[in-house]
Amino acid sequence: MLGKTANGLFWMYRYIERAENISRLVETGQRIALTRLDSPDDEWVSVMKTAGVAKAYKRHHETVTKEAAIDWMLRAKENPSSVLSAISSARQNARVVRTALTHDVWEAMNGCYMALKDALSRRVNERDLPAVIDLIKERTALVRGTTQGTLLRNDIFNFARIGTFLERADNIARILDVKYYVLLPSVYSVGSSIDNVQWETILRAVSARGGYRMVHGSQASPRDIAQFLVLDRKMPRSLEFSVTKIRDNLEYLALDYGDRHRSHELAEALKQRFTAHDIDAIFDYGLHEFLQDVLGSLNELGQQIEKDYRFYE
Amino acid sequence: MNESQTFDEMWGREQVLRPPYERFHEWFEGEDIARLRAKQREAEEVFRLTGITFNVYGRAEAEERLIPFDIIPRIISGREWQKLSRGIEQRVQAINAFLYDIYHRQEIVKAGRIPQEMVSRNDAFLPQMIGVKPPGGVYTHIVGIDLVRTDDNEFYVLEDNARTPSGVSYMLENRETMLQMFPELFSRNRVQPVQTYPLDLRRSLAACAPADVDEKPTIAVLTPGIYNSAYFEHAFLADQMGVELVEGQDLRIVGGKVAMRTTEGYRPIDVLYRRVDDDFLDPLNFNPESALGIPGIMDVYRAGRITIANAPGTGIADDKAIYSYMPDIVEFYTGEKAILENVPTWRCSEPEALAYVLDNLHDLVVKEVHGSGGYGMLIGPTSTRKEIAAFRDKLKARPGNYIAQPTLSLSTVPIFTQKGLAPRHVDLRPFVLVSPAGIKITPGGLTRVALKKGSLVVNSSQGGGTKDTWVLED
Amino acid sequence: MRLKIRHTTRYAFDDPVIYGLQQLRKTPKNGPEQRVIAWKTTVEGGVKELSFEDHHRNTVELISFEKDVTELVVRCEGEVEVLDSSGVIGPHRGPSPLWLFRRATPRTRAGQGCRALVREVKGEGDLDRLHALLRMVHGAVGYEIGVSRPDWTAEDAVTAGKGVCQDHAHVFVACAREMGFPARYVSGYLMTGDRVQHEASHAWAEAHVEGLGWVGFDVSNEMSPDERYVRVATGLDYAEAAPVTGSRMGGTGEALSVEIEVAQQ
């Protein structure tokens, strides 16, 4: 496979994952705004922070309003991580790797782009927002579905998965890091209404409410939430799960190619951090510090994969 | 234009249904117009979703457009095709022989059959190709011959495309779409298949690999990238052939070969089907500004270690000034009269011809010698006095830049409109593959159709569409 | 005369070279006027990828930089037996047709300056006229190291009234073509009486004279080449006969040193 193709696949799937994550954050933000009475616009700053788009927003806007924040996250061209930008980038990469994709995946990707370009061609008003969010989820799910259903399990699939899970791990780590203080056991008294809303935000933002209830029941505690999102091996949007997938897919590549690289060591080391610690140990170490470490490691791993598999040079 | 002067491929000149269209007509009569309208829309949707688009330049944001597809097939009988393909084969053979000669001993110039200036003053002549023997002796691995029809038995070659002819993906996708939408039509008519083209192309390219390459040469398609107007086709062909689609940035010289950067290191390429123009192919040897090419690829080529398809420098054979000598060229190298006719052509570089052309601008089509895509041309009969006057000045300023031809009364084929069938002018580009194993012509080709009533410009960049082209098994 | 030649080019870079190629035309030609007895190119910091003969019958070697090198050394050495033919190389041999050498290139396009020179040329017969041109160019463009740039055209040199051997050859080629002669640029080595070491290779011109074939003209020394001249590469101008043409990524801050030794055996 061409290094360029590996790069294109990696980024196509990162962008697909990003578009979906951003749309979920918009949905969460809207939900909070609707259920809270006090200064809901402030909450959008926090939502944009979790999406990693707050700084750029401030460069383009003087005030934070709900409309502007939603627009920034869904369709701003100046925001490379808006849903529309991400989907355009995903499709651009898909065009580059067209020959590595099945007809079904390409059509799903192209259809996704055409549908969302149309739906996001003008400002989305409040009334249409749920339908647009659903469309984003549906269209990106279709890309994922055709990927699962039609791609050979070879290097093409592995690079797609590595891109997906690097983006996902990065996204979860960022969400947790923005909100980590509400998960710290000692800061607020358990059961305060503020915490409930914040926890709810976190769970919603990673589509984990249902899963959490199944595992931990309806009683939410910060420790359990942290455990669930950082260390649960069955939760497809936990850090542990994502990191394991990255490691596994890298291992499949090593098996296929008969060659190991430094990125395999990095992935294994990253994975070990999760296996070796329980949540209390992580709290002892410092959740924020732990998340910062993980974000740093993910970044380093991404760059190492680029190098080992000759994405650029 | 008076319609009765025009030959319609379905109805002839006398409104009598021509035999190749009999079964189609029977089917069409039984069809519901509303259903066909829905099918036409459905076809567009398929094309859009598949991404069969071309990029339009000159705007802030590159825009992707569809080339309109018309659902009414153009039908050619097996007998008509046989004669055409004999003529095409002869012409393509002559083009290859001409290229070999021009880059070696130039016997045709020495024999006085074409003037030396035609070569020495020609920008398409590539000195770096002098004395080079391309692997397998093939210069033009892929050729597209543009044909027009004016009567039952009258075909003319309008243009030879010996550089990097495009459009073959439309030929294939048009057929695919028709098969999906109207399977019943294909059980009623025995249409010669075109779908083997990608496999044929792959075989043909493999047969042209450098001599020292073992039985399974590595082939790749070179594209300028996703912003190129024909990117879809490049990806399509690579995909269908099962080979890598590479850009200049993926390639460098390793171990004396051109090699592509893979996830497992550099891997040598034996045959490169390039869709990048000569000038941009090698910044070390040609245009140093080119970011699309591979520095040193010409050196590898001249050392005989890669096949470049088509060979660099083939543009000299499809130059519009050389075109006017094609009947001589065919005769010189094949010893036979050309089976396919050339459109009579005035070379404006010759004073007498120029005088005639200036006097008859309103009747003639004047083309730029090196132009393509229908730009920079004058169609006398449909131009205003002002346009003609403006063109006259351009022509006088640089006569050597132009050739002129009579306006041919191009044949029409019906297209499907809101009101049913309506005749529109067409041309035809059959695709030809050349290898040491022989010449292979895909039955049919790309029919381009001027969608505007009366228009003679079929170029997709100027509002032309395409049709599926059927060659019947007689 | 038997000449022993050693040509060493050393490149040092501040930053490592990521990737790069050099096209070398440093191997002397084999022909009736000279015979290559032995020749060898060795590269340090690079790899010899391939070699071929171009359309001027120049031996071209392509070398690539090894990854991340900061120094590249190219060493060419060998022996050549040269005959004195009073500058006459003889009949044109392909593969390039003779008419190709009538083509002006961007560097050899005759403008006002060259045309003015040509108007002054007097003489009976082709050879006379070409020798007159040789003297004319020698007088009009003074030899001065360091004034001209490698990308100068013939016109640039005529306008400046000075230049080096490359400029002299370009002006002569441009004028000779303007006078109707096929002409070409030659790069090569010259043994001089005063020293063995040189910092650059030499360049001169050749024009094709009916009946005689190619004849050499060295403007810088105002004479036709003799047995001290070793022909290496020919072309329509410098670009086609340059000892080195390269492209690379990375490797900024290039420092170049050239050592050429030409000595009689």
From TrEMBL, chain A:
InterPro entries: ATP-dep_Glu-Cys_Ligase-2, DUF403
Residues of the DUF403 domain: 1-309
Record-given protein name: Putative alpha-E superfamily protein
Organism: Rhodovulum visakhapatnamense
UniProtKB/TrEMBL annotation, chain B:
Residues of the Circularly permuted ATP-grasp type domain: 73-450
InterPro entries tied to this protein: ATP-dep_Glu-Cys_Ligase-2, CP_ATPgrasp_2, UCP005522
PANTHER family on file: BLR5612 PROTEIN (PTHR34595), SLL1039 PROTEIN (PTHR34595:SF7)
Protein name: Putative circularly permuted ATP-grasp superfamily protein
Lineage start: Bacteria, Pseudomonadati, Pseudomonadota, Alphaproteobacteria, Rhodobacterales
UniProtKB/TrEMBL annotation, chain C:
Record keywords, A-Z: Hydrolase, Protease
Gene Ontology molecular function: any one: peptidase activity
InterPro entries: Bac_transglu_N, Papain-like_cys_pep_sf, Transglutaminase-like
GO biological process: proteolysis
Residues in Transglutaminase-like domain copies: 157-221
UniProt-recorded name of the protein: Transglutaminase family protein
Native source organism of the sequence: Rhodovulum visakhapatnamense
Lineage start: Bacteria, Pseudomonadati, Pseudomonadota, Alphaproteobacteria, Rhodobacterales
